[in-house]
Amino acid sequence: MRIDGEERLTFCSNDYLGLAADPRLAEAMCAATRHYGVGAGAAHLINGHFLAHQRLEDDLADWLGVDRTRLFSTGYMANLGVVGALVGRGDTVIADRLNHASLVDAVRLSGARLSRYRHNDLDDLEARLSRAKGERLILTDGVFSMDGDVAPLVDLATLAERYDAWLVVDEAHAFGVLGCEGRGSLDAAGVVAGDRVLRVGTLGKAFGTAGAFVAGAAEPLEVILQRARTYLFTTAQPPAIAEASRAALSIVREEDWRRQRLRARIAAFREAIVSLDGLVLMPSNTPIQPLETGTASRAVAMAERLASLGLLVPAIRPPTVPMGGSRLRVTFSAAHEAEDLDRLVSGLRECTILD
After folding, report:
1. What pLDDT score does 250 carry?
2. Which long-range contacts (CB under 8 A, 24 or more apart) does 52-59 make?
3. Which of 99, 95, 224, 115 is nearest to 167 (CA)?
4. Is residue 180 domain-shared with residue 163, that is, in the same domain?
């Protein structure tokens, strides 16, 4: 990136497969813009649902092996819409304490009671499930955006079935990256998703485009169509973006070498960091590789030092993370070359020497 005239090698993008600048996506979007125009012009249920949108929904459903998918304009809107469509006043959402802000806001706006269990703590979750009133919904990230770890999805699915609860998994940081053909964390865990399991994904991360979708069985997807306010009352995404996303999906499915390269970069980084003193590498095998620094001031100082070396690595501080949990949040892409990794490790080594 070029920031204020200076080039920076970035380690903070969610473009995990390096598709955002792929010319095939650009060509698909340009062709669709010439065909459809720029904007959708209306909400999906008025006359804003174009053939491009339907084709993308069908392709996504085929990829995931589900009855249907439904497009949303953003991931934030998808989470708000899905939760609000399934539960309301008198119901209970049992949510992981480290869930993304959009999931927290989704519960608050739904009117349902929010019960937050300790991060990935199954005993705490089950205790709260057993006390929950009304419709029950277990809500979790698949890959947690600040820690980079993965939810215990096999156990969550078992508890959801035992207590006849919904299970909604935000796969924003997993789709395209984990599982066969990048089908996400549920696929990677070997979970066979039942009728009460819904997956939410964004297209602006590994897919390199924009927008979001929810995937699942026909009945809950019909409920979402009728009740999700963030679907009903907003203009549909431009159909050209849907066509670019279709092109991205084909690449995600077919070019497994991108995931292989990404895994190789992650493994090499984790091996190199072990030799550096003063940095705590959190347990993650995903593109999100947080390095705990302890204090916020130390995180900021290290980020500034890296910036002076031409590296863009953000410092994450409270309230985004808990007190004492400040960190450098490193994220990797298949677009990173081995030389890019060497520059990052060298920069981090300099930070620890000067610390």
Report:
1. 98
2. 52/239, 52/240, 52/242, 52/243, 52/246, 53/236, 53/237, 53/239, 53/242, 55/242, 55/246, 56/213, 56/242, 56/243, 56/245, 56/246, 56/249, 57/213, 59/246, 59/249
3. 95
4. yes
The CATH number for 191's domain is 3.40.640.10
Is 173 part of the annotated catalytic residue set?
A: yes
Which residue out of 205, 284, 326, 333 is catalytically annotated?
Answer: 205
Q: Which of 145, 185, 245, 326 is catalytic?
A: 145
* Bond before 319 cis per omega within 30 degrees: yes
Going by C-beta distance under 8 Å and a sequence separation of 6 or more, which residues neighbour residue 287?
Answer: 16, 148, 173, 177, 262, 266, 331, 332, 333
The SS3 call for residue 65 is: coil
Q: Which two tokens stand for residue 92?
A: 């209970």
pTM of the model: 0.95
Element (H, E) at 225: helix 218-227
Asked if the bond preceding 238 is cis, omega within 30° of 0, the reply is no
Which residue(s) pair with 6 in the sheet? 3
* pLDDT, averaged in runs of 10, over the chain (355 residues): 93 97 98 97 97 98 98 98 98 97 97 98 98 98 96 98 98 98 97 93 98 98 97 97 98 98 97 84 95 91 95 93 90 97 95 77
The reply to whether 284 belongs to the active site is: no
Catalytic annotation on 133? no
Q: Considering the candidates 53, 173, 185, 326, report the single residue annotated as catalytic.
A: 173
> 266 and 249, same structural domain?
no
Of 254, 278, 300, the position where a domain reaches its end is: 254
Angle at 135 between CA 137 and CA 196, to 5 degrees: 50
The rounded distance, in Å, linking the Cα atoms of 323 and 342 is 31
